[in-house]
Amino acid sequence: MEIQTLNPTTPRQRQRIEAFLKRNGLRFDDMHYYAAITDDDGEMIAGGGLKGNVIKCVAVDDAHKGEAIANTLISHLIAHANEEGHSNVMLFTKPKNRQLFESLSFRLLAEAPEAVLMETGIGGINNTVEALKKIREESEKYKEYNKECKEDSKECKEEEKTNLNTTTPQHLNTPYLNITTPQHLNPSTPQPLTTTTPLRGVVVMNCNPFTLGHRYLIEQAAKQVERLFVMVVREDCSLFAYAERKAMVEQGVAHLENVTVIDGSEYAISQATFPTYFLKRLDDAADTQMLLDLDLFRRHIAPALGATVRFVGTEPTDRLTRRYNQLMHEVLADVRETVRLEKEGNAVSASRVRKAMEQGDMSTIRQLVPPTTLPYIIAHLATQALQAELDTTPKPGLVDKDNNGAHRDMDYALMQRSIDTLHPYFVKLALLGCTDALPTHTSIRDIGIEAEKAMLAATNGVNTHKGALFSMGLAVVAAAHEERKTAANEEQILKERNGGEDVLVSLQTTIKALAASFPDTNGTHGSKAKLLSKGTTAIKGALDNAREGYEMLFAEWLPFYIEHRKEHDAHTLHKTLLRIMCNLDDTNVIYRTDLATAEEVKQEARALLDSFEEVVLKDMDRRYTARNISPGGAADMLSLTIFIGSIQT
Question: Which of 246, 476, 502 is nearest to 377 (CA)?
């Protein structure tokens, strides 16, 4: 007998694995590695696979059970996982196999009627439990310290009655302590604490993104316990990355003194992580996944935090979430549901926010999320705009889904990687702009330089989005700053502004102010294009357009885009690109060709826009590609137009 390595991604080898699993009553599941034990004739008699640190699809032919083959196979898989950097290894299996795997050093983590979760190795759940215990201990220390602060504060107030010159105790000057009475301890609060109130509770949330509904649930739960732990789902399969979601929650509940936001458990079991290959009926998968997740929480997470109650919001629409809530009541001792917050008769939900983002409906978004969430949404709308420009196909001489245009060093995948790399920096810029005073040129520049370095590292030195980074970066900072002003002085601003037009005027003014602090550039395509013109024409580069507040964009391109979008024109983005090409001094075209060609591009765009046909646009793409013409400046302005169109309301 020998161990062979099979590649599950190779069709022929996958077929061999599938046939073996079917013979043993199992289905194929997602794996990156599979080990097979074969007999002297080369027939597979045992096998098992890996996906990360999870062992999957282990089977031994009936004729060879009891020959210690399972021990050999599992030892091999654990060793391979260790070589790949995993110190602990997990597996899901049928309950009847529990004793077998316990004999192979695996320990039980959670169980359900149809499955068990086990692990072996160093650390694992014990590390998670110890980390949670430390968080609990720190929260208790904070509570005691804050209690002392309040007692000292009372003493100070008594002294002030007789001595107005009493100095403030040193510890009351600590900037990160809020010594005001928490809402849940306020005697006027409808649900005051009693001796029977649980000391600690837990809310588990995804927050994709964090909404007023999430905040409301946390506020209601915080009134019922001395300490509330908010655990953010760690799994990264959402629109907003885990780090963003956790940051949104932390900022959104900063006013609640008895709330601690903690990392999501690495052991959370979801539809994405739970394998179904050993279940007889796939209908059992959802319930089994949920029951394992709840058992993990009951056995390990809640005891480590000392939590006795789990809080959830009611679920009026999603069937799976409603079923999860039902199972929670069956499995956990104390589960409390809070009726979902509603706006205009509908539950406030993250899905409504995401839908509004797709529709560019900022006015709806503002009604559904706290101000602290808006910078993250603005950053995503910027990334979404870059993505929309890239996906617009066909485009003349530009990278799209069909071809690389006039660019030999770029393709769709590279541009996609560039957008993904830039996104975290748009988040940084949005957070930078979300201040009472406009950020300095230096602070914006530093983030821009950092972003450009990351972009070039991701693209092997290819300048994919330098121009877009500048224009979009300024607009992101300006948009976040405008949202901050609105949140801080909402009533006054609403009185002064007259609908969307005034919003755009204010945004344009802020962009001008930001651009004015940037010095003239050297070495860019824009500066080189100016040199090529030799003063015969007034060529405007990216910085010039920004200093003018993108006059053409606000006056012509944006209204054109919005009008065609309202008409649900399938070629809105193609036509908007052509509209921009009609009158933009595209320094990228000038740099790659000459002034005469740039003027020719304007005339061709105008002619095609007057009588638009996609087949003619495709022909333009072929010709521009052959002539090395790439209207990259127009592409940047298309992205910017899309972005501003999404935040104008």
Answer: 476
The burial class, CB within 10 Å (0-12 / 13-18 / 19+), for 384 is: buried
**Pair (218, 297) in one structural domain:** yes
CATH number at residue 97: 3.40.630.30
Structure tokens at 175: 């900037």
Same domain, 224 and 316: yes
Q: If pLDDT is split at 50, 70 and 90, which confidence band does 449 have? A: very high
Nearest one of 474, 468, 476, 471 to 430, comparing CA atoms: 476
Identify the CA nearest to 219 among candidates 179, 188, 182, 174: 182
- Over residues 479-516, the pLDDT tens digits come to 999 999 887 776 555 555 555 567 899 999 999 999 99
Cis bond before residue 519 (omega within 30° of 0): no
- Residues 31, 415: Cα–Cα separation, whole Å: 29
Q: Give the model confidence (pLDDT) of 537-594 as tens digits.
A: 578 888 999 999 999 999 999 999 999 999 999 999 999 999 999 999 999 999 899 9
> Taking the CA of residue 164 as centre, how many other CA atoms within 13 Å lie in the half-sphere pointing to its CB?
0
Same domain membership, residue 136 and residue 112: no
d(CA 621, CA 617): 6
Q: What is the reported pTM?
A: 0.86
Which range of residues forms the domain containing residue 278? 128-142+182-352
Cα–Cα–Cα angle for 510, 422, 526, rounded to 5 degrees: 60
The verdict on 375 and 303 lying in the same domain is: no
Q: Could you tell me if residue 485 is left (phi over 0), alpha (psi between -120 and 50 degrees) or otherwise beta?
A: alpha
Our measurement of the distance from residue 34's CA atom to the centroid of its chain's CA atoms, rounded to an integer in Å, reads 32
Same domain, 317 and 390: no
Query: Which range among 8-12, 173-177, 256-260, 370-374 shows the weakest confidence by mean pLDDT?
Result: 173-177
Are 330 and 379 found together in one domain? no
Domain identity same for 442 and 567: yes
